[in-house]
């Protein structure tokens, strides 16, 4: 039931702080230990490489997962688009472990990869929002998102739920593997910060509504730019905006823009820079200035730590590894408002279905 909300998408954006709290409740005990099946951790720790396979928004959650598993657990991790994996199969390591990220648990592209993985006898985990879904039943292990049904076609709370659960899993695996630095990663504390930060952002949605009206009205195209972790985030931000507003949007590695795509920048082209990483902040700002000099309208979404006084959206504090959890919220809201300001049914974008059961 969407209750007082005009659309499910807005309700689901608002539910994200609750999704973080549910995940803490389901997976983290009062003493900080993680409640995840030891057999799963044992199999993951025996693997020499993790392969995350997913589609669309779940693929974008996988891009963040790669950073979490590599930085926190030091285990090499690859992320693959499910529909490409079968035909463009990477050379697998000796002991691969597969992680399927899927809100619905029914995506045909991912199912087809899992069928092959099972045939080859490799262990697998499905992270999904739907208990007893096909990918859940067919994988060796399942972890549930406990996000409540996601009704809007555009995925929001499943994305942040998947990232949070990947962080919990990375923590558990790091502890299991005795990674010395893992004790510095307070996953419950960080997810609590994420919940509070998300709440701050959704409470300011009327500001974002105004920004959407000023920046995105009438435009045919737009860009999101970022580097490193912010590049992973902008790919999801761009997908959200394009799928519900039909504004053609690209999420670009900001350093790559000048190698061709900058030719598309014209007077008033919206360019949204997401900056959450100290190491890349100065470079992304200079890339934004390059496009501003060619007429682009720039919107800065920056973490408090790296923000300047003129940045329009400032993000609450969180570890840079989990900045996606807060940075995506204004992007989801921009997409939502851009869509309704154009008079569209934001919950049911044209040509799209909630779960894609054909390859
Ligand atoms: C975008 C969106 C899709 C899905 C994709 C995978 O907002 O919802 O890109 O993320 O179709 O779906 P699941 O996660 O159900 O496998």
Automatic annotation (TrEMBL):
GO terms for MF: carbohydrate derivative binding; glutamine-fructose-6-phosphate transaminase (isomerizing) activity
Function: Catalyzes the first step in hexosamine metabolism, converting fructose-6P into glucosamine-6P using glutamine as a nitrogen source.
GO biological-process terms attached to the record: carbohydrate metabolic process; fructose 6-phosphate metabolic process; protein N-linked glycosylation; UDP-N-acetylglucosamine metabolic process
EC category name: transferase
Organism field: Ligilactobacillus ubinensis
Protein's UniProt keywords contain Heme: no
Name assigned to this protein: Glutamine--fructose-6-phosphate aminotransferase [isomerizing]
E.C. code: 2.6.1.16
Subunit structure of this chain's protein: Homodimer.
Reactions it catalyzes: D-fructose 6-phosphate + L-glutamine = D-glucosamine 6-phosphate + L-glutamate
Keywords noted in UniProt: Aminotransferase, Cytoplasm, Glutamine amidotransferase, Repeat, Transferase
Superkingdom of origin organism: Bacteria
Active site: residue positions: 354
Domain SIS per the UniProt entry, residue ranges: 40-178, 212-349
Cellular location(s): Cytoplasm
GO cellular component terms attached to this protein's record: cytosol
